[in-house]
Amino acid sequence: MANSKKEMSLTELADNQTGIIVTILGGEKAAKRLADLGLTPGTEITVTSRTLFSGPVRIDVFGSKLVLGRGLASKIMVEIK
Fold first, then answer.
1. Which domains does the chain have, with CATH numbers?
2. Is the CB of residue 39 less than 8 Å from the CB of residue 10?
3. Quick check: 26 pLDDT over 70?
């Protein structure tokens, strides 16, 4: 049976949608920055607020609220939970 879960960028999740980080795209610097924030593969995150095409993405991770620039958020690939 095929895997029905879809991998997508964090910026594609809707408000209040939860995903599990699958991978981080980009270079070592982006991966380190995100890891320093606790955003590593396997981490569950919920988008709390985002605009459709521009601006920051607000997330909830481990009970903490974070705001990520859209460029950095677009490097986070997630599976919808």
1. 7-80 (2.30.30.90)
2. no
3. yes
